[in-house]
Amino acid sequence: MTYNITVLDGDGIGPEICKGAVAVLEAVGKKFGHTFNFTHRLIGGCAIDETGVPLPEETLESCLKSDSVLLGAVGGPKWDGLSGDLRPEAGLLGIRKAMGLFTNIRPARLWKSLKDASPLKSALVEGGVEIIIVRELTGGIYFGKRESGTDENGQLYASDTEKYTVEEIERVTKVACELASKRRKKIVSVDKANVLESSRLWRKTVHEYAAKNYPDIEVEDMFVDNCAMQIVKNPAQFDVVLTSNIFGDILSDEAAEITGSIGMLASSSLGYGTRGLYEPIHGSAPDIAGKDVANPIATILACAMMLRDSFSLLDECKSIEDAVQKVLDDGYRTKDIMSEGMKETGCTEMYMLIAGNI
Ligand code: NAD
Q1: pLDDT at 127 over 90
Q2: Active site (annotated) includes residue 49
Q3: What SS3 class is residue 238?
Q4: 249 labelled catalytic
Q5: Are 346 and 293 contacting, i.e. CB atoms less than 8 angstroms apart?
Q6: From the alpha carbon of 75, which atom of ligand 1 is closest?
Q7: Residue 68 CA, ligand 1 centroid: distance in Å
Q8: Which of 17, 114, 284 should be mutated for ligand 1, with most atoms under 8 A from CB?
Q9: From CA 112, how far away is CA 97, in angstroms rounded?
């Protein structure tokens, strides 16, 4: 099969880590007989320098024509003084909107060989942890009606509104069910249905939709406060966690933290079709850009997610995860995950080792 991928290298360490991801995908293509065509386009600060805007038309067109999109990272001090829609981050918001991406998927995986990096006691993470947070991305309180003013008692007030429609809940539930059907066939749906009307609709809709369309998927409900506690108390109980925009925002950072390293975590954003935007969760790390010390693994794992979630290439996805596991088990570490007795590698050496293990 042939797959067309737009690569948005971006700024800072973006080009270095994307180079590594492309090398690994090429190794996967060679092993499994696929062709990956890569089209590199500008986004963020480098696009501002070259074209005056963070998301040039040519970039947008290429993304919308591709089978999927890989993004490095955008931003850096050079562009910090720019305002609003001219900032590098505006390119990111623009591309997510144009691609109609309403779901964010963030797996927080603690690799067994990196368990010392977790702030949790080793007994809690002994068997490894992988929590996949499926977060609704374009609805809820971040996009609801907001107002401020002075009330009838002369008090200044402000309010934000959490609003969800059945359609918004169903479409993100579908993404979570699809993902769960390729995994443990279990979803924990997180809400605050004991207090919020919007959560009661969330809970009812998730259950009805899953039961009707994915009868083999088990849905368990959990209140968000309990979930926040359970993530640090017994993280291994979770697999796919489905939740709203604001709860997902908070829980995904909490889950990421227990893995101990920002350079290892990937994320994807998906919409109605199979095309997605795949990226590491970290930023452009200007402090280490160009030094060949960045950890390319988050971006490489974003490619594994692309193979699984956009192209349904499960064995190919696993080949990347296994290669990462092997290289970690062999004791290779980039600086950010380095510990005593391990072998320190640069960015290039790390991705060459992973590509070599595909
Ligand atoms: P950052 O994630 O870029 O860096 C935080 C720290 O983590 C730094 O010390 C950095 O060296 C380290 N780090 C990050 N990725 C690493 C990797 N792969 N390997 C090794 N170390 C790594 O966050 P920041 O410093 O707050 O932001 C820097 C720039 O990135 C800012 O302009 C910010 O706006 C932007 N940013 C972009 C995105 C994105 O493109 N999605 C996300 C977050 C921040």
Answers
A1: no
A2: no
A3: coil
A4: yes
A5: yes
A6: 32
A7: 23
A8: 284
A9: 36
